[in-house]
Design goal:
Blueprint (H helix, E strand, L loop, with lengths): L6 E6 L14 E2 L2 E2 H11 L5 E5 L3 H9 L19 H11 L6 E4 L1
Parallel strand pairs: 1-4, 1-5
Antiparallel strand pairs: 2-3
């Protein structure tokens, strides 16, 4: 929380990356790539909630291990090659039962 404003960190992590397949789960210095983003968010004392939006059970499992929430799996139509991140953000915010003043996209 910052000055009474609630902050959510949003981490999009689609399972079907074409550029570098499986990039979120690739290891860099003994840890999966997504773990660095989650750990950076956890180090920020202002962030109230860290949510990973994914369509991959494997990414969800790893993200939970590092302390992120996956309140629900991202629907297939928001995980296609041409899907826009903003649409996943709006979908997630609409489904969450809490309101936030600030969203940090990581």
């Amino acid at each position: 929380m910052l000055n009474g404003r609630r902050i959510i960190a949003f981490i999009p992590a689609r399972g079907g990356s074409k550029g570098i397949p499986g990039k979120n789960l690739m290891y860099l210095e003994k840890k999966p790539l997504i773990s660095y983003t989650i750990e950076a968010a956890r180090q920020c004392t202002y962030i109230d909630r860290i949510v990973v939006s994914t369509d991959s059970e494997e990414i969800a499992h790893v993200a939970r291990q590092y302390g992120a929430e996956i309140p629900f799996m991202r629907p297939r139509w928001l995980a296609e090659d041409n899907s826009k991140t903003i649409d996943a953000v709006i979908y997630t915010l609409d489904k969450l039962e809490e309101e936030y003043d600030i969203l940090v996209l990581l």
